Amino acid sequence: MSEESPQVPADTEFAFTAEREERYQELVRRYPTNFSAIMPTLWLCQEQWGWLPAGVPEWVAQRLDVPVARVYELITFYTMYYLENPGRYNLQVCRNVSCHLMGAQKIVSHLRDKLGISHNQTDAEGQFRLEEVECLGACGFAPMMQVGKHYYENLTIEKVDQLVAGWRQEGERGE
Amino acid sequence: MAKMTIDGKEHEFEDGMNLFEACAVARGENLPHFCYHPGLSIAGVCRMCQVEVEGMPKLMIACNSQVKDGMVVHTRNERVDGAVRQILNFHLLHHPVDCPVCDQAGECSLQDFYMANGLYEADVDIEDKIAKGKVKPIGEMVMLDAERCVLCARCTRFTTEITQTHEMGIFNRGDHSEIDVAPGKTLDNNYSLNTVDICPVGALTSRDFRFRRRVWWLSETDGICHGCATGCNMSIHHSEGIVYRTKPRDNMDVNRYWMCDHGRTLYHEIAESDRLTQPSVRKARGELAQTASWDHAYRSIEAAGKALGGDDAALMIILSPHATVEELYAAKSVLSDSVGGALLGYRLRGSEIGEGDELLFDADRTPNAAGAKKLGLAEYDAKQLEAAANEKTMLLVVGGDLALAAPDAGAALSKFGCVVYLGWQENSTSMLADIVLPTSHYAEREGTFVNREGRAQTFAAAIDAPGEARDPLRVIRELGALFGHEPTWDGIEAVRSELCAREGAFAAMAQGVGPLGLALDAAAESEVERA
After folding, report:
1. B16 conformational bin, left if phi > 0, alpha if psi -120 to 50, beta if neither
2. What's the topology of domain A89-173?
3. Cβ–Cβ of A69/B167 closer than 8 Å?
4. Strand partners, B422
5. Contact assessment for residue B200 and residue B112, using Cβ atoms and an 8 Å cutoff
6. B182: nearest CA in chain A?
7. What phi, psi does B64 have (nearest 5°)?
8. For a 10 Å CB count at each end of chain A, is N or C smaller?
9. Which residues of chain B neighbour A67 with C-beta distances below 8 Å?
10. Number of helices and strands (H, E) in chain B?
């Protein structure tokens, strides 16, 4: 008995871009077993699609020839793999000691009221998602948040308002 | 060998032996544990089997430690008891404590260890327990209640290591962790109910058994599964004449700790409405069979014999690999050797063969083909049956379902002058028979099967047979008397001693086969060596 290969929805075809495919091939060679390559492969997927759309975990399991249960175990264990679309701007506000002391909670409540969403929720337009996260290593510039690959530091309510307004404009222009 | 001390007593164990197992031997009982299982890899996740090893700064989990020379271990002292209590506290933190409605109550490790090591007021009291999935069917046979789970990972290790089907996993993390099937998967392999057996708590329960009977009402009787030629050792759980479930009985030489779902659910046939509970006789072909008394049925056989030509009438016997060794021997020695019936064979060649797997389920779906072979019985083919069929012959079919195993055989059966069927279940052969003699099910009688590896394994009667069904051995004896050759034996013990004395292949059985069976070939070889 062995695992049947997981079913990827028939109408979806996933493929890495040529550059990512190359990185994927390098990953698979790097580790002694494919199990070790699950996490970096999922990162590649998130880099490409922004999250892990339905069918992607199965596709990864199939490509790496590992049980799909192992892939889902990892995805659900870690908080930074997304099985739901985190929205265009995922606001990850640090809530650890330094940021907390410097008023992170005020930033979070302000964003919560402004956007109408709380921790781990995405707004109706799929534009913003609010996530309280643990220390991101920028304590010297507390309070801070991460959006995409950027750190926004020394946050104040005014600065947050400006940022959100800018992102809203970007969104409206469809950039 | 390693000389060591456990709880103040000196012991000697094999160097490198698992400390958990050494402690079990030394204490005469297991250490408290959820995750350790001898048939699975070591997980070390439940932290219940902590012991104090002198010279080690912290307590060690016994299951992941090895025996060493000079080791001094304490399994029962204040420090160890305190640690077990703390761990139990953790395990019960989010547990719903719904024992009154939980099917595992009475055979739950969490309950047992709480009784033995706990009985405390919870040190930590949380207002909001984390809610998880309840009453979730994760497969045809298994129900999941994630709140009761202690995350021992036995079920996930089972599906990973034993069946290698990988349906299950532990998802999320921390106190949100829960076992489940992977999205889009169901636990529907043929071994799914083993996860229920090894689940130490009520997280996985059997959909076949839940809410049917509280486990403390159940009595256990040793049985042998008759679903295929593997002969898995099982325990029949019954109460007040009703069988409620069967579970595997450990036998390292046969089924280890496991059993397949197919074999486990066979017990349903015992109480099915198609059981034969009363003899029946059909006056003429084409008419409906009428229920009759045993006396009337026997007289009808006599009358049929006379009608077929009195002393000229021939008797032919077809045996079955579903019959026990004792029954096959009795039928052969009494009805064939003494009475003079012609023995066609024990099995239609190639019948009742399905698809097997590498784990336990054998392609041969009969429990005693090896036993029949050891008695010198032969297979027959459809042509032989066809050639033997004639109006002057009475055919006696002992067990099995010939007409189903080979549909063509059905046509041949109706060419015999009279067909007598001995069996416990209504089937296509009993429908064709002129006289039907109801017998007891395997769970209702004693006997011996020889499995595919030549291991003789005995089973005991768990419950009484329904209605007027009789033990096949008794029926064979009464048929012998009817034909003028009453055998000297009167019960199964006597048949066994005669069998051991007369059939060389079974000589080793004379000393008894024991609860785990007896490998006949190996026993015979060692007998020769001794001589």
Report:
1. left
2. Glutaredoxin (3.40.30)
3. yes
4. B398, B437
5. no
6. A69
7. -110, 20
8. C
9. 160, 166, 169, 182
10. 16, 25
| Disruptive mutation site among A76, A78, A134 for chain B (greatest number of B CBs within 10 Å) | A76
For Cα atoms B278, B284, B285, give the angle at the middle one, nearest 5 degrees. Answer: 95
Tell me how far apart the alpha carbons of residues B131 and B338 are, in angstroms, rounded to a whole number.
71
Pairing of strands B347-348, B379-380: parallel
**Is the CB of B310 inside 8 Å of chain A's CB atoms?**
no
Q: Cβ distance B351 to B405 under 8 Å?
A: yes
Name which of A67, A72, A77 is nearest B183 (Cβ-Cβ).
Answer: A72
Contact B357 A1 (CB under 8 A): yes
Q: What is the DSSP string of B204-254?
A: EEETTTTTT--GGG-EEEEEE--SSTT--EEEEEEETTEEEEEEE--BTTT
User: Structure pTM?
Assistant: 0.91
Distance from CA of A161 to the nearest CA of B (A): 34
Q: State percent of chain B over pLDDT 90.
A: 82
A70 in B contact zone (CB under 8 Å) = yes
For residue A143, whether the previous peptide bond is cis, meaning omega lies within 30 degrees of 0, is yes
Distance (Å, rounded) from C-alpha B148 to C-alpha B111?
A: 12
Return the domain boundaries, chain A.
18-77, 89-173
Residue pair B17/B66 in contact by the 8 Å Cβ criterion: yes
Q: Residue B164 is nearest to which of A1, A58, A76, comparing CB atoms?
A: A1
β pairing state of B290-291 and B280-281: antiparallel
pLDDT (0 to 100) of residue B377: 96
Q: At what angle do helices B109-117 and B78-92 cross, to 10 degrees?
A: 140
Q: If you measure CA to CA, which chain B residue comes closest to A69?
A: B182
Residues B361-381 pLDDT 10s = 999 999 999 999 999 999 998
Q: Give B138's strand partners.
A: none
The count of residues in chain B is 531
> Which helix or strand (DSSP H or E) is residue B316 part of?
strand B314-318
DSSP per position, B350-390: TTTB----SSS--SB--S-HHHHHHTT--EE-HHHHHHH--
Is the minimum CB–CB distance between B185 and chain A shorter than 8 Å?
yes
Q: What type of residue sits at position B381?
A: D
Residue B75's closest CA among B23, B15, B33?
B23
User: A–B: how many Cβ contacts below 8 A?
Assistant: 49
Looking at CA atoms only, how far is residue B172 from chain A in angstroms? 4
Taking a C-beta distance cutoff of 8 angstroms, is the pair B393, B315 a contact? Answer: yes
Whether residues B182 and A69 touch (CB distance < 8 A) is answered with yes
Q: In this structure, which amino acid lies at residue A142?
A: A
A57, A70, A77: residue with CB nearest B172: A77
CB of B459 closer than 8 Å to CB of B447: yes
Instruction: Residue B360: count other Cβ atoms within 10 Å of its Cβ.
Output: 23
Do the chains contact at B183 and A3, CB–CB below 8 Å? Answer: no
* pLDDT tens, residue by residue, B220-274: 999 999 999 999 999 999 999 999 999 999 999 999 999 999 999 999 999 999 9
Q: Give the mean pLDDT of chain B.
A: 93
Number of H helices, E strands in chain A: 7, 5
- Residue in B with minimal Cα distance to A9: B184
